[in-house]
Amino acid sequence: xxxxxxxxxxxxxxxxxxxxxxxxxxxxxxxxxxxxxxxxxxxxxxxxxxxxxxxx
Length: 56
Prior knowledge:
Layout: H1 2-23, H2 28-33, H3 35-50
């Protein structure tokens, strides 16, 4: 069980790191004005949770 939690946390942190790479150097205003940036960041997080079974 602990291994599943650790793996899930690792995946979440990896998704956050990738999202950070995409938005690094951008202002909030640039982020808010760009549907592409918002879409990429949202999907980075959402896809992680969609791809995981609900009981893991």
